[in-house]
Amino acid sequence: MTAFDPSVPALSVQGLQKTYDNGVEALKGVSLEVAPGDFYALLGPNGAGKSTLIGIVSSLVNKTAGTVQVCGIDIDADRSAAMRQLGLVPQEINFNMFEKPIDICVNYAGFYGIPREVALTRAEAVLRDAQLWEKANVMSRTLSGGMKRRLMIARAMMTEPRLLILDEPTAGVDIEIRRGMWQTLKKINAEGTTIILTTHYLEEAEALCRNLAIIDHGRIVAEGSMKSMLARLDVEGFLFDVEGELPAQLPEIEGATLIALDGHTLDVDMPRAMDLNRVFDAFDASGIRVRSMRTKSNRLEELFVRMISAPQEAGHAEVRV
Ligand SMILES: Nc1ncnc2c1ncn2[C@@H]1O[C@H](COP(=O)(O)OP(=O)(O)OP(=O)(O)O)[C@@H](O)[C@H]1O
Ligand SMILES: [Mg+2]
User: Fold this and answer.
1) Cα of 64 to ligand 1 centre, how many Å?
2) Residue 114 and residue 32 share a domain
3) Start and end of every ABC transporter domain (predicted)?
C-alpha cells in the first residue's frame, strides 16, 4: 500500500446537499473531513442522511450540490480514480450465495482489472484476516451470519482500498460476532486503511472510533474526537440499588440530584468531577446501605440523545469540539 500523504484527507466533503426526486432534503449542506488513517464514526438516527452521504461518496447516488474528494481526488473530476481508492461494505449482504468465498473475492478483483494471480494471493490474505480461510471453498450460503458479514469486508479489501466505508456493518448481529468483527476492522485500520462506519450501536463507535460526527435531519450537529465528545458530558448518572427501604427524607448532596425511582432504587446525577465517596458518606449518614450500583446509560448514548433532541435552532449551530 502506498504511504499516506498526511496533509490530504482520506475524505473531504464540502457543502453536500441532496434533494431526492420526491422532494425529501436528505442532506442540507454537510461538510466534514476525515484524516488519513482515522477510524471515524457517522452516527445518527434513522433517516438522518447517513446512507445518502455514503451513497454519494461511493457514486451510487447523485448529489444535488457540493463537492466530494476521496484521497484528494474529486469525484466529479475523475470518478473512477476516486472509486479505486475506496472500498464499500453496504448494509445488505449482496454476494452470490451459490459462489465460494474464494471465487467471490477473486471475481470481484477481476472487475477492477486485478490479474488473477495477484487476486488469488490477495484473496488468501483477506480471507485469513477475516478468519474465513478454512471456509474459502464452501458454498457461501452455508456460512453463518457473522461469517457472511466478514466475507463482505474481505471482498471490499480485495482492491486494497485506502478508505473503507461500512454502512452499519454489524446491524442485527449478536455481541460476540460484533466483537469478532471489531477485531477484523481494528487490524485493517492498524495496517493503514482509513475506516468510516455508520452504526446504531453507540458502544461500537466508542470502542472503535477516534473521531465522529453526529448527523441529524441532514445536518452535522456535532463533530470532533471521541475523547473530547465524551469529555463534554460533565454529568454522570448512577442507579443505586439499596438494601431495605429508602428513608422518606433523602439525603441532600450539594451539586447532585437524587430521585427515588421506587422504594429501593435511587437515581443520582452528579458532576463527573465529584468524588463518589461524598455520596457514600451521605448515604451512610442517612442509613442507606448500597447493595449494587451501575451507571445509568452509555455515555455516548447520552450525548447522542442530547444532541439530536436539541431544539432546532440550537441544532442548526454546528458544534465542533
Ligand atoms: N431513494 C430515495 N428516494 C427518496 N427519498 C429517500 C431515498 N433514499 C432515502 N430517502 C430519504 O432521505 C432521508 C435520509 O435517508 P438515509 O437512508 O440517508 O438515512 P439514514 O441515516 O441512512 O437512515 P437509517 O439509519 O435508517 O439507515 C430519509 O428521509 C429517507 O426517507
Ligand atoms: Mg442508512
Assistant:
1) 15
2) yes
3) 11-242
Q: What is the average per-residue pLDDT within 157-173?
A: 91
d(CA 183, CA 139): 25
Query: What residue numbers bound the domain in which 282 lies?
Result: 235-300
pLDDT band of 157, cuts 50, 70, 90: very high
Cβ–ligand 1 contact at 57 (below 6 Å)? no
**Tens of pLDDT, residues 221-246:** 889 998 887 766 667 788 999 999 99
- Report residue 11 as a C-alpha cell: 475524505
Concatenating the DSSP letter of every residue in 146-166 gives HHHHHHHHHHHHTT--SEEEE
Same-domain status, 50 and 99: yes
pLDDT value at residue 318: 43
Q: For 94-144, write each residue's pLDDT tens digit.
A: 999 999 999 999 999 999 999 999 999 999 999 999 999 999 999 999 998
Question: How many separate helices (H) and strands (E) can be counted in the chain?
Answer: 11, 15
Query: How far apart are the CA of 20 and the centre of ligand 1, in A?
Result: 9
The burial of 21, by beta-carbon neighbours within 10 Å (0-12 exposed, 13-18 middle, 19 or more buried), is given as: exposed
Is the domain of 115 the same as that of 49?
Answer: yes
pTM above 0.90, yes or no: no
Residue to mutate, 22, 30, 50, ligand 1, most ligand atoms under 8 Å from C-beta: 50
Percentage of the residues of the chain whose pLDDT score is greater than 90? 65
Question: In this predicted model, what pLDDT tens digit does every residue of 67-83 receive, in sequence order?
Answer: 999 999 999 999 999 99
Distance 70 CA to ligand 2 centre (A): 20
Q: Considering every ligand atom, which ligand is closest to the CA of 60? A: 1
Helix (H) or strand (E) holding 213: strand 211-216
What is the CA(49)–ligand 1 centre distance, in A?
Answer: 6
Ligand 1 contacts CB of residue 127 (under 6 A): no
